[in-house]
Amino acid sequence: MENYPGLEEVNGFELGQMMQRQAEKYGLEVGYTEVTGLEQRDGLHLLHTKDGDYTAKAVIITGGADYNRLGVPGEAELTGRGVSYCATCDAAFFKDQVCAVVGGGDAAMDEGLFVVRYASKVYVIHRRDQLRASKILQERAFANPKMEFIWDTVVTEIQGKDAVECLRLRNVKTNEESTLEVAAVFIFIGLSPNTDYLKGMLPMDGGGHIYVDEWMETGVPGLFAAGDVRANSARQVVTAAGDGATAAIRADHYISETFQE
Amino acid sequence: MAKPREVTDNTFEQEVIQATKPVLVDFWAPWCGPCRMVAPIVEELAEEYDGQVEFVKLNTDDNPNTAIKYGIRSIPTLLVFKDGRPVGQIVGFRPKSDLKQRLDAVVG
Known about the structure:
The complex is a heterodimer of chains A (261) and B (108). With 261 residues, chain A is α/β, with parallel strands linked by helices. Chain A is built from five helices and 15 strands. Chain A has helices at 12-25, 87-90, 106-115, 135-143, 237-258; strands at 35-41, 44-49, 52-56, 59-61, 65-67, 83-84, 98-102, 121-125, 147-150, 153-159, 166-171, 177-181, 184-187, 191-193, 223-225. The model of chain A has no long low-confidence stretch (mean pLDDT 94). By secondary structure, chain B is of the alpha/beta class. Chain B is built from four helices and five strands. Chain B has a five-stranded mixed beta sheet with strand order 1-3-2-4-5.
């Protein structure tokens, strides 16, 4: 990451861990589980999770977004066997091998440029004839002799017995089909917010992002949403951090106003 | 102490394959962010399943042979071994309840 204020370059995971350690110093308790539902009862919020229920005076929803799947045959079966959504996690397993990256945005270029440090060659497969990525990332990708671009093309199937062996491709302009032999395919075709469990309960845009006001309030008293889950977000780490601060300040006000003795 | 032990390419046979109890192996590497999220959960499970399941971790950077042998192409990967054979695989970060379900299936 090169766009977080004050830090010229920082690893996203490490920044997250630094934030966690800092908050834990002031008493934050962290629990990992999956939230399955949320309801309001007697002016409080009841959270259902895979590890039991939690009751809270205020809740800030910051579930973030998850990588979109291609939704093609072979993808689910070969995940962890050459199908990857995290280049920094998995690229090292494909040293001197041929890999593919699917997508044309910032994430696809960022991750592709990481994969190419290890791979002997990286094919970038994009469904359009130009990239959406920022200019600086495009320039870096085009300048890399080990990166080759396959335009106007989609992946229709991922094939392999125990691991990824090849991709079936289709050119969307000519409908021509082809096969590309690769050891791994890294998929970066956008993100979807993790808000499925809130559908029907909160107003959302077409993509499942929660509408909030300028204080990150959802309209349900004491319920806030911040970061990638909210509508009209710039979806940067810096804006998510700002959202979180806004929501936390407002939640603090809400609790002291609503629950004063 | 139930803290996961480090195993290596050299000790894998003895510590995992020849173990009498089921063994959960956490394949990780220092540069892998999600691995750091999985590690504390594995430590908690090691406490909870103390005596039933052995917990070990293998650094895939330093021990590539074992990772290659078991087809590890993504980390974190958790592999559960029973009687020297892999009987369960979990790729990526999953909530603790999911991991417990998988372990209970092996232990139960």
